[in-house]
Amino acid sequence: MIAIKNILVLNNFEEPQKCKKSDILIENNIITKICDAGQLKTPEGAIVIDGTKKAIMPGLINTHSHIPMTIFRGVADDLPLMDWLGNHIWPLEAKLDEEIIYAGTMLGCMEMIKTGTVAFNDMYFFTDSIIKAVETANMRCTLSYGLIDLCNEEKRQTEVKAQKDVLNSLEKAHNKNGLINAAVGPHAPYTCSADLLQHAHELAKEHNIPMNIHMNETEDEIRQIKEKTGLRPFEFLNSLGVFDDINVVAAHCVHLSDNEINILKEKNIYVSHNPLSNLKLGSGIAPIPTYLKDNINVTLGTDGCASNNNLNLFESIKACATVHKGVQQDSTVVKVSEVLNMATKNASKALNYNSGEIKEGMWADLVILDLKNPTLIPNKNIISHLAYSFNGVVETVIINGKIVLENGKMTTMDEDKVYEKAEEAYLNLVN
Ligand SMILES: C[C@H]1O[C@@H](n2cnc3c(O)ncnc32)[C@H](O)[C@@H]1O
Ligand SMILES: [Zn+2]
After folding, report:
1. 305 touches 69 (CB < 8 A)
2. Which of 125, 275, 311, 328 has the greatest number of beta carbons closer than 10 A?
3. Interface ipTM
4. Which residues are annotated as a binding site for Zn(2+)?
């Protein structure tokens, strides 16, 4: 049990004036009580956190990452997507092994936790190593294996077999404490055959799990699909039935026609907006204000550390809250509450979680901020600061009712060892 006393609860992004100091009780992995400050009787044996001069917010949820790619930080800067992937990232990924993946995932979990992220939706390879690291870190996640067949029948068969093993591992991991969840991850329309996309869709439906896919990131890939199929990517996948009856998290969604935006609406597709990756790779800027007007579900992601180059979701929040104002020359678009909801409750809905808000009965996935932080002062407008000024350095993080970061220190891992292993992994990757 954890009792948090006299803390400012940031549970209403729309009406910041209604946020007040309260006491919170966590039992097992659930928030069981929220009451006025001073009203909670501390249960015997509870860990007590004094929340004076602190605030608590829902933990952030990153809906698009490639967590082991922390090891790729800085390896291929200032290149466009296809050159970056084909000539730099994929050749290096051919050298990956279980140790590199484990080291990269440990570093990624540490970075996310220290910057207030409690859960992430990931697509990568070597899923067993990722599971091992995430279990050590005690993070919540939805993991998918990146399916790529480049329209080659032999490769498709290997991918289908690998996918089966991955789902078995993920099911076992999920059964331990529910922290690890499965998704299917066809990489993108330009790397997957129609058969592979349909196979992934069938699996998602059969297992009642989401699909995680890169969509319409660049004009170049859209041209490729149009040449091959006569249709734009969303139209092509829709014609295959790939969006039917499942939750789809579509990363990027930078360049969409009006008809494709209608497909987003009709099929209730969740957009994972990755503004910093799109800016760095020169891909473009997604029309988020249009999506918001159309009531499309928008969430936020970082993408991997070779295109961002960090996993601090507060940076993506600020980018999202500012870049669209500049592009549209309209400072009223993408409001603070909208962008904070993207990183919390919208993401929770996309991934079928019970978090993203601070309410009785919800999972205890929470982040405590020390208000004695220069980027949060004056302490008056904290919710505005979360979007525009906060540097992301959080004090305490609770995931599934367990304290994983305490006064800025990881409780689940030896930080120096993680840094050392990540340096070693980098050398093994590039040499
Ligand atoms: C899982 C595979 O996805 C690759 N990847 C990482 N970031 C991106 C991106 O922005 N667009 C397309 N593909 C991406 C990663 O390197 C793996 O190969
Ligand atoms: Zn990506």
Report:
1. yes
2. 311
3. 0.99
4. 64, 66, 214, 303
- Annotated binding-site residue numbers: 64, 66, 93, 187, 214, 217, 303
Range of the domain at 38: 2-59+357-410
Residues 47 and 152 occupy one common structural domain? no
As to burial, measured by CB atoms within 10 angstroms (0-12 exposed, 13-18 middle, 19+ buried), residue 107 is buried
Q: Are residues 279 and 137 in the same domain?
A: yes
Same domain, 43 and 135: no
CATH number, domain with residue 34? 2.30.40.10
Q: Is the CB of 89 under 6 A from ligand 1?
A: yes
Residue 430 lies in a domain: no
Residue 416 placed within a domain: no
pLDDT tens digits, one per residue of 299-332 = 999 999 999 999 999 999 999 999 999 999 999 9
Question: Residues marked as binding for substrate?
Answer: 93, 187, 217, 303
Which residue's alpha carbon is at the smallest distance from atom 6 of ligand 1?
Answer: 304
CA atoms within 13 A on the CB side of 163: 27
- Do 17 and 72 fall within a single domain? no
Does the beta carbon of 146 lie inside 6 Å of ligand 1? yes
Q: Are strands 402-406 and 2-9 parallel, antiparallel or unpaired?
A: unpaired
Distance 310 CA to ligand 2 centre (A): 13
Tell whether 429 is covered by a domain.
no
Q: Is the CB of 217 under 6 A from ligand 1?
A: yes
Question: What is the tens place of the pLDDT at every residue in 353-376?
Answer: 999 999 999 999 999 999 999 999
**280 Cβ inside 6 Å of ligand 1:** no
Distance CA 379, CA 390 (A): 11
Ligand closest to the CA atom of residue 80: 1
Q: How many domains does the chain have?
A: 2
